[in-house]
From TrEMBL:
NADP(+) binds at residues 166-168. It catalyses: (6R)-5,10-methenyltetrahydrofolate + H2O = (6R)-10-formyltetrahydrofolate + H(+); (6R)-5,10-methylene-5,6,7,8-tetrahydrofolate + NADP(+) = (6R)-5,10-methenyltetrahydrofolate + NADPH. Transmembrane segments: none annotated. Its EC number is 1.5.1.5, 3.5.4.9. Pathway: One-carbon metabolism; tetrahydrofolate interconversion. Belongs to the tetrahydrofolate dehydrogenase/cyclohydrolase family. This is Bifunctional protein FolD. Residues 140-275 form the Tetrahydrofolate dehydrogenase/cyclohydrolase NAD(P)-binding domain. Catalyzes the oxidation of 5,10-methylenetetrahydrofolate to 5,10-methenyltetrahydrofolate and then the hydrolysis of 5,10-methenyltetrahydrofolate to 10-formyltetrahydrofolate. It comes from Allokutzneria multivorans.
Length: 279
């Protein structure tokens, strides 16, 4: 069996190019650029790097980026107030709250302060419900990017068994809902799942989203399975032991360069969509 790496860089470039063209059209029609507000609490190095990267990508796509840094000691009430102010600002079209926030903050309360029409990262309960019921709305960007990757590589989820490892509300759960919407049979695994390797070995599509470096071993992978590694850990490694899994998988995303680029591309695309919807 021939294994293939499944990078997302080319797909992301295509999405960003089309997004830049739409952003230019929006500016031509309205005289203003689409605007994404990025909110970050504290100075976690990884989060600071991610936000900087997203702001740089915004500039390349013709999107204005408004940076809203808040101190580590910000309270839930203060963060919610800041997010609500952005939600009410007509010059802001999309809001990204960088997560995780510090432990003393109620992250869910902060997410829910984002107006549904500006939830371009797909983190609110409204967006999750829209994904689950197939209604209009914004997809969670990493799960949405995963679905675009599968489509781009000709992977048809219908009738296949997809195993999602991880149940976070902004990655594992929405990924499961989007796969279910494409008629996959979906199993969601988590920290209490018994005999996890045996379950993963039954999967035609594996989505690893556990946040643990090289957690999924190569001998867990069914021959010919498609492996999507949605993890990113210190040392530039994902949640899958890539070298071990490569001989077993038909397609496997690298880390970095796999899911990450499509995540950011989808964020930009949804920001421009939100701008047009609000105009």
């Amino acid at each position: 069996m021939t294994s293939r790496s499944m990078p997302g860089t080319d797909l992301a470039a295509t999405i960003v190019k089309a997004t830049a063209e739409r952003a230019a059209e929006f500016e031509r029609l309205t005289g203003t650029k689409p605007c994404l507000a990025t909110v970050i609490v504290g100075d976690d190095p990884a989060s600071v790097t991610y936000v900087k990267m997203k702001r740089n990508r915004c500039a390349k796509a013709g999107i204005t980026s408004r940076h809203v840094p808040l101190p580590e000691e910000t309270t839930t009430e203060q963060l919610v107030a800041a997010v609500r102010e952005l939600s009410e600002d007509p010059s802001v079209h999309g809001i990204l709250l960088q997560h995780p926030v510090p432990a003393h903050i109620d992250e869910r309360a902060a997410f829910e302060a984002i107006a549904p029409g500006k939830d371009v990262d797909g983190v609110t309960m409204h967006s999750f419900a829209a994904m689950s019921f197939g209604e209009p709305g914004f997809a969670s960007c990493t799960p949405g990017g995963i679905m675009r990757l599968l489509e781009d590589y000709g992977v048809e989820p219908s009738g296949k068994h997809a195993v999602v490892i991880g149940r976070s509300p902004i990655l594992g759960k929405p990924a499961a809902m989007l796969l279910l919407a494409k008629d996959a049979t979906v199993t969601v695994c988590h920290s209490r799942t018994r005999d996890l390797p045996s379950i993963v070995r039954t999967a035609d599509i594996v989505v690893a989203a556990v946040g643990k470096p090289e957690f999924v071993k190569g001998d867990w992978i069914k021959p010919g399975a498609v492996v999507i590694d949605a993890g990113y850990n210190e040392g530039n490694v994902g949640d899958v032991a890539y070298a071990e899994a490569l001989p077993h998988a038909s397609l496997i995303t690298p880390v970095p360069g796999g899911v990450g680029p499509t995540t950011i591309a989808l964020l930009l695309e949804q920001t421009v969509t939100a701008a047009f919807a609000a105009s």
